[in-house]
Design brief:
There is one protein chain. With 231 residues, the protein is α+β, with helices and mostly antiparallel strands. It has a domain of 133 residues. Helix content is 23%, strand content 27%. The strands form three sheets. A four-stranded antiparallel beta sheet has the order 2-1-5-6, with helices on one face. Strand 5 and strand 6 form a beta hairpin. The longest helix has 16 residues. The radius of gyration is 40 Å and the shape is elongated. It comes from Apiospora phragmitis. This is Large ribosomal subunit protein bL21m. InterPro entries: bL21-like (IPR028909), bL21-like_sf (IPR036164). Belongs to the bacterial ribosomal protein bL21 family.
Length: 231
């Protein structure tokens, strides 16, 4: 016998049982064909809208160019004011004792008369030993500054000359000195590529780095007398 005859015999012997019809549960809204009226009690009323939102005009732009400009404005970061990036933090200067006040009142005029004053200023927590005319290369890019800006450096832990040195605890009173720095510009180093590998792996990772620097020049170093702090 051929396979087709065997197949027909097996189909005749098997009892033919009708399969149950598939039952699909349709949503209630799709079954109803008559539209519902708004005064019908079955329709849920929409929530009330405030008067401010009802009177406000629609803020959705219809022109595609206006929509693109709105998206660009929302993605662009808002510039921050210099006061927000560089907040004025009061100094934590310990009150000097009567003996130290007498010493400052006696020796500060001598320190002031000697030339070539130096300072140990702190810029963002980093100490720098500077004199007038020195250039500082900060290892970061200072935001919200342009070449030509003048900064007042009011954090100094050491103030001295050739024979005298005044140390603060932790900082010297900012009324005793004036130190100003001028922004010269920013610099960038050449692109550095470092290849990182892992053991028993054939892939290599190339890490690129290009640091930015800010260049300052100390334009003024001035020592005030003891009368600046009322001594």
């Amino acid at each position: 016998m051929s396979r087709s005859l065997l197949r027909t015999l097996f189909e005749l012997r098997a009892p033919s049982t009708p399969r149950p019809a598939a039952q699909f549960k349709l949503p209630v809204r799709s079954l109803s064909t008559t539209p519902l009226r708004r005064d019908s009690p079955t329709v849920s009323e929409s929530p009330t809208i405030s008067a401010q939102s009802a009177t406000a005009p629609s803020a959705i732009p219809t022109n595609p160019t206006e929509a693109a400009s709105l998206v660009a404005e929302s993605r662009s970061p808002t510039p921050q004011a210099p006061e927000a990036l560089y907040p004025r933090i009061p100094q934590q200067v310990n009150q000097p004792t009567s003996a130290s006040q007498a010493t400052i009142a006696q020796l500060l005029p001598l320190l002031r008369t000697q030339p070539a004053h130096y300072l140990t200023v702190h810029i963002w927590g980093r100490p720098y030993l500077v004199t007038a005319g020195d250039q500082i290369r900060l290892p970061f890019k200072m935001p919200c500054v342009v070449p030509g800006d003048v900064l007042r450096l009011d954090r100094a832990s050491t103030l001295g000359s050739r024979d005298f040195t005044l140390k603060g605890s932790p900082y010297v009173d900012e009324r005793l000195f004036e130190c100003r720095a001028t922004i010269l510009g920013t610099e960038t180093e050449p692109m550095r590529i470092k290849i990182k590998t892992k053991r028993r792996q054939r892939r290599n990772k190339h890490v690129r780095s290009k640091h930015h620097f800010t260049i300052l020049r100390i334009s003024e170093v001035k020592i005030n007398g003891p009368e600046a702090v009322g001594l």
